[in-house]
Amino acid sequence: xxxxxxxxxxxxxxxxxxxxxxxxxxxxxxxxxxxxxxxxxxxxxxxxxxxxxxxxxxxxxxxxxxxxxxxxxxxxxxxxxxxxxxxxxxxxxxxxxxxxxxxxxxxxxxxxxxxxxxxxxxxxxxxxxxxxxxxxxxxxxxxxxxxxxxxxxxxxxxxxxxxxxxxxxxxxxxxxxxxxxxxxxxxxxxxxxxxxxxxxxxxxxxxxxxxxxxxxxxxxxxxxxxxxxxxxxxxxxxxxxxxxxxxxxxxxxxxxxxxxxxxxxxxxxxxxxxxxxxxxxxxxxxxxxxxxxxxxxxxxxxxxxxxxxxxxxxxxxxxxxxxxxxxxxxxxxxxxxxxxxxxxxxxxxxxxxxxxxxxxxxxxxxxxxxxxxxxxxxxxxxxxxxxxxxxxxxxxxxxxxxxxxxxxxxxxxxxxxxxxxxxxxxxxxxxxxxxxxxxxxxxxxxxxxxxxxxxxxxxxxxxxxxxxxxxxxxxxxxxxxxxxxxxxxxxxxxxxxxxxxxxxxxxxxxxxxxxx
Length: 516
Fold this sequence. Notes:
Elements: H1 9-23, E1 26-32, H2 38-46, E2 50-54, E3 61-69, E4 72-78, H3 90-101, E5 106-112, H4 116-127, E6 133-138, H5 140-145, E7 148-150, H6 152-159, E8 163-165, H7 171-185, H8 200-213, H9 225-234, H10 237-247, H11 254-269, H12 277-296, E9 297-299, H13 303-315, H14 321-364, H15 369-406, H16 410-423, H17 430-439, H18 441-446, H19 454-464, H20 470-483, H21 496-514
Parallel strand pairs: 1-4, 1-5, 5-6, 6-8
Antiparallel strand pairs: 2-3, 3-4, 7-9
Helix pairs in contact: 4-12, 6-12, 8-9, 8-11, 14-15, 17-19, 19-21
């Protein structure tokens, strides 16, 4: 029996999701921007009761888990972190489609208490799709450290949905969150979200289409008529295609097309055509977010903000940005390669000792020479070389790289190098994947999924193979010792000339491939 669509892949994941949904009382979607503690809350709520995989037809990971609260079983679906649901990337498309068509009983949007204004963009976009929303303001402990105070009740009144403050490490706050989720999912709490009021001309255009859409959309999705009208005016083909496929409808209705042409003409006459329609929508959301934050967020002191801005000015400046970046990366490479010498030597000696003992054991057992050669000098010796050469550098490089990520320095690297990568017809995000490639090319290639453009993603995948990873660097150092290269100062050491050769070699291949 071979592998079929029903025994593996996306069909298997869909079947698992359906089975889990049937066995649970409520299905809850967890949404939020990246790095707001969404996965931490998900892990705290579900514990070890999790299922992982990929979203059907996508390379984006999927995670869902169950939780029992007051005799109610909740299925939590961890939606990919995204800043928006305007379908600019796979993550945004998945988040939008699941909230809109996945029929969750409630959607929890997690915000970072230290920067609510930036996170409210996703909240307002989600409120246009569903009214069953719980806003979770996470990282209250971090906000307290920075002397930031948030009036949660006032924020709830402005949004028209429940708002719960949490600290993922405190179980009491999570219990309050669970209680609120159950009340919203069971309709014990009826949410009345305060939607964004757009430009008067845009509102008139929405009303013109909304009445026609009421006759086209399925009854259970009539609440999406306003959102659908907005997407018709925006002309987002991917979203409109998803709506047609999921609802089995067509937007080619003559009356609807007539109203759409009339509305588009009205927008064009008022300088709200295709070029600046979305900009106007986004600016209204941003202004609303600013207005709400000015009323609900207060600061005891703003010295920490000034300090962060001063640090940002230095790290992203034209004068100091690149030298600081080279310094940090140089320190990481030096610590990785120099620091890896000692554990590599210990592992090599340890495996050499084991090899001697194993050879003696095989001789004692009178094992044939061919068997000794295959198992000891072949398999064991090869594995021991790989482990002793590759494991120590990776064990040092990736934790150091994670520290830079937690400190928020990696986005600054992407910002600093974006202009240079643009000249090579790619994006600054590739700088992050190339940095990961120095640790392991496979990790760098997998990290390329953060790049939105398929063309730029393909360039990043191809060029990451040319980045010298720890294995290549280790073997090049052995080679440099063997040939006595004049610029090598010490055995297994790496100099700034080495780093220059690495960067130049990778950049040369990047330019060659980007011209194809």
